[in-house]
């Protein structure tokens, strides 16, 4: 881009290349040179593509996704064994939301699996990927080469955040799809009953499941921003991951302490399970909106903090 | 890579030499200073000028501030005071415009172990927003070929030897036609054959007009490939200039080989030779201003059996020791 700014001649196409370059080769070569010298704004997304591909090629990422895929299988099998005699899986309201409904409709396994993984497994996976994002590159030394490439600090940080957000969605979908497959294999499918007691068709139920997966993924963007910020503070990927997961656990515990009820509405995990409200008819939006608003706030605050830190940081690793 | 790269470079030069723009050197720093948190002064008022087209050797003991300087030049570290201009533009402010034309190897290679050599280069190339994705795989293949890694391109970088990693790091610096290459210890970890290949590559790149800024702890390497050099000690620039001038600055030594060292030493002192030292059958000293033939004649007249009489040319190492007053690998 900057080259184009300093050399307006290059905007005029291959023919004008001969003017600034006294011995420029004619024809095809000049055309190639001109193509090389005029970067397209789209090229900037090459880093995002590389980042996405690199992230899912890491053994660690695949292991995390594997664990997430196994959770619905375990829940499904447990419910199946528990209800073999024709009984109900409902133990007086114990266990994750919707678990008592699974035997009637396999689709409920999606909701149950998301409710079971959202408090810990999903945010832990996101915390690992987010915590490693900058600190891992710094620890391996690859950060300095990305920056002299030059990736640009703001561009690299935005790319990393976009990748972590994409991972939030991917991780959630892995849980949802695995649960849907297991649910379909082990339990009957069909029309379902909402929390409010109304009947909706299976197609609409699938739509709600997709919507819930989206909301669950969005519930994780706050943790993602927090992890990214922690990641800019250290040169050790492991330390950043451990800190992020540690913070996550601490907040979850604090959210259970009644004396802290004044603070609890500001904990990123406080409204996480509000996604169940999407299964009401009509949908109860209050807590959902609070949840998404809180996530946006966390993303803005910690995203800004990460940017302020990363753009001013001396890269000495 | 050759055809377009030549065109590219000429076009780039034409663009850079805007009328009225004085080229002050490919790298020019004024009073460049870095004080780390905790008060340690790593680089102290550095005035460095790297002429265009030179192969510039950057020398100094470990801990003398070379790497901090390189990191400031590459925009990785913010200077505490002073300015740094690279390719005529201020760093780190103009990093996005300058760095696509700079290839760098800083403090050894850093690679993604779980990716192949080729995929490592594809990733680094994708990080550059001015790199054309349509020519990416061709440029990566050319860079791998240039450093002799074409056969190992598909192997995971984790399985590379230190020398192969070093080559891959060099390949990353050669992904695009560059106007400046900053190479920090480029032959580290290479066997003698590999060192020769890399030096040949550096000469070849320099012959194409690329300015090479080379830090090394191997003095003979600097003497072999560099046209210019700068010496740092304790964060300060001790000297800079053409390698020939630097070596000339340190005086050579007179070496007399004889079975009569004591007598030879006495005669040499009489003849005005300073700093005479005898070591076995070798007697050395600083040559006097007078004709050396007379010194030799005086030795023979005094009955000293002279087996060898020679003036050893000063090496860069002598110049270095004279300038810094210490051995080369001494950390300060």
Automatic annotation (TrEMBL), chain B:
The UniProt record lists the keyword Transport: yes
Start and end residues of each stretch annotated as Disordered: 1-24
GO MF entry, a single one: ATP binding
This protein's name: Multidrug ABC transporter ATP-binding protein
Biased composition (Basic and acidic residues): 7-20
One Pfam family in the UniProt entry: ABC_tran
Superkingdom field: Bacteria
Protein keywords: ATP-binding, Nucleotide-binding, Transport
Domain ABC transporter: 27-259
UniProt record similarity statement: Belongs to the ABC transporter superfamily.
InterPro entries linked: AAA+_ATPase, ABC_transporter-like_ATP-bd, ABC_transporter-like_CS, P-loop_NTPase
